[in-house]
UniProtKB/TrEMBL annotation:
<dbReference type="InterPro" id="IPR032710">
    <property type="entry name" value="NTF2-like_dom_sf"/>
</dbReference>
<protein>
    <recommendedName>
        <fullName>Sucrose-phosphatase</fullName>
        <ecNumber>3.1.3.24</ecNumber>
    </recommendedName>
</protein>
<keyword id="KW-0378">Hydrolase</keyword>
<dbReference type="InterPro" id="IPR051518">
    <property type="entry name" value="Sucrose_Phosphatase"/>
</dbReference>
<feature type="domain" description="Sucrose phosphatase-like">
    <location>
        <begin position="9"/>
        <end position="259"/>
    </location>
</feature>
<keyword id="KW-0460">Magnesium</keyword>
<dbReference type="Pfam" id="PF05116">
    <property type="entry name" value="S6PP"/>
</dbReference>
<dbReference type="InterPro" id="IPR023214">
    <property type="entry name" value="HAD_sf"/>
</dbReference>
<dbReference type="InterPro" id="IPR006379">
    <property type="entry name" value="HAD-SF_hydro_IIB"/>
</dbReference>
<dbReference type="InterPro" id="IPR012847">
    <property type="entry name" value="Sucrose_phosphatase_pln/cyn"/>
</dbReference>
<dbReference type="InterPro" id="IPR013679">
    <property type="entry name" value="SPP_C"/>
</dbReference>
<dbReference type="Pfam" id="PF08472">
    <property type="entry name" value="S6PP_C"/>
</dbReference>
<comment type="subunit">
    <text>Homodimer.</text>
</comment>
<feature type="domain" description="Sucrose-phosphatase C-terminal">
    <location>
        <begin position="283"/>
        <end position="412"/>
    </location>
</feature>
<comment type="function">
    <text>Catalyzes the final step of sucrose synthesis.</text>
</comment>
<comment type="similarity">
    <text>Belongs to the sucrose phosphatase family.</text>
</comment>
<dbReference type="InterPro" id="IPR006380">
    <property type="entry name" value="SPP-like_dom"/>
</dbReference>
Length: 427
């Protein structure tokens, strides 16, 4: 949370399943479009928060399967667990705050008496979240009876129904909206209130997010009826809430445009970067752009032209070096030869490349050190490399204005696949 020096330009708080992640899109295209937009224009000055119903274990399972970015804050188990940074440091203060009028044993004991409630798997049960499945037509009555029953024990609980099937029992103080309000209060205490906040969701457990004062909200096009109805009945700030016409992450990008919250054209949607205006060129955008070219070249989606390779020879300083994760040093010129020969080597495969955690440090007036994770998904295999590059704008005649002068990569923990077909000189 302390990653930024000042206040965030934009705080995005997004649900994961069927909001950031479209489980009906095996290519993950809208998620990858969002990733490119975020890393090129927002990572440096904004904050990304994932707020999910998933438990930490189930969130990790999703992360392995889908090309999710690393958020600044992760709120899990329907607003009952808050964790900071990539090392996911838990907020113990929040968890003890939730103990008021909560007794897990009483909740499990009493809910067991409702035959309509089927317990969810153990992986989804958490200290401040007891979860079930219940059929839609029985849900209302069960919620009412259960609330009355637990009240008799002096408990104050919140019962949340999502996706026409999942029922969560939480402490009254918990929930996605309460957790966000708590985060915003923390920012305020530090004098770092974000300029804008956008909450994004699709189902019942997201409803609370839309009640937090002064936030913009997007219900993605595929949002559940239960959320749409809830918002039309309860939301006081309806002019700040939009129902996108696009699904999942594409709906989030759309809402950034609807509310004029900042750049809303993903670099993934740009075919010809030469047409880009100067103001969008920044070191973060430069690395996003390069790896998009790299992906398209290897997928055989761009025209196989000498022009492309000649441009790369201008872009990469002829005396520059690439240090491969194995420690081997290769002159840039040789890397480009290999890339030139790799045209279409991923044709027809599920090959995608994205960058995560882009951080930019200006080290003198025309030189930047850019650090990021470069990730590759090939079918089910994933490989990530922590990458550092040195960029200079000394050669302003270059398209985009930057020249690459040095690049160094190391394996991100556990990411080395030891694939036989690795080409060590491909960056
Ligand atoms: C996620 C969780 C589940 C919860 C549901 C609704 O799917 O895994 O436990 O009931 O969200 O909040
Ligand atoms: Mg969802």
């Amino acid at each position: 949370m302390d990653r930024l020096d000042g206040a965030a330009r934009l705080l995005i708080v997004s649900d994961l399943d069927f909001t950031m992640v479209d489980h009906l899109d095996p290519e993950n295209l809208s998620l990858l479009r969002f990733n490119a937009l975020w890393e090129a224009f927002y990572r440096d000055n904004s904050l990304l928060v994932f707020s999910t119903g998933r438990s930490p274990t189930s969130y990790k399972q999703l992360k392995i399967k889908k090309p999710l970015l690393t958020p600044d804050v992760t709120i899990m188990s329907v607003g009952t667990e808050i964790m900071y940074g990539e090392s996911m440091v838990p907020d113990a203060e929040w968890e003890s705050y939730l103990n008021q009028k909560w007794n897990r044993d009483v909740v499990t004991g009493e809910t067991a008496k409702f035959p309509e409630l089927t317990p969810q798997p153990e992986i989804d049960q958490r200290p401040h979240k007891v979860s079930f499945y219940v059929e839609k037509d029985k849900a209302m009555k069960v919620m009412k009876d259960l609330a009355e029953c637990l009240e008799k024990y002096g408990l104050d609980v919140k019962i949340v129904y999502s996706s026409g099937i999942a029922l969560d029992v939480l402490p009254q103080r918990a929930g996605k909206g309460q957790a966000l309000a708590y985060l915003l209060k923390k920012f305020e205490a530090k004098g770092r209130v974000p300029s804008n906040t956008l909450v994004c969701g699709d189902s019942g457990n997201d409803a609370e997010l839309f009640t937090v004062p002064a936030v913009h909200g997007v219900m993605v096009s595929n949002a559940q009826e239960e959320l749409l109805e809830w918002c039309s009945e309860n939301a006081r700030n309806s002019h700040q809430i939009t129902h996108a016409t696009e699904r999942c992450a594409a709906g989030i990008i759309q809402a950034i445009g609807t509310f004029s919250l900042g750049p809303n054209v993903s670099p993934r949607d740009i075919q010809d970067f030469l047409k880009c205006t100067d103001e969008i060129c920044n070191p973060g955008h430069e690395v996003v752009k390069f790896y998009l070219y790299y992906e398209r070249w290897r997928r055989g989606e761009v025209e196989r032209s000498d022009h492309f390779i000649n441009n790369l020879r201008l872009l990469f300083n002829s005396l520059g070096t690439f240090v491969h994760p194995s420690g081997i040093e290769i002159p840039f010129s040789q890397c480009i030869d290999v890339l030139a020969n790799s045209y279409g080597d991923q044709l027809g495969k599920q090959f995608r490349v994205w960058v995560d955690r882009v951080s930019v440090a200006q080290i003198c007036s025309d030189t930047w050190l850019v650090k990021f994770d470069k990730c590759e998904l090939c079918g089910k295999d994933r490989e990530c490399r922590v990458t550092t590059v040195l960029l200079t704008s000394r050669h302003a005649e270059l398209p985009g204005g930057f020249m690459w002068i040095y690049m160094h990569q190391t394996w991100l923990d556990g990411s080395f696949l030891g694939r036989e077909d690795q080409r060590p000189w491909l960056f």
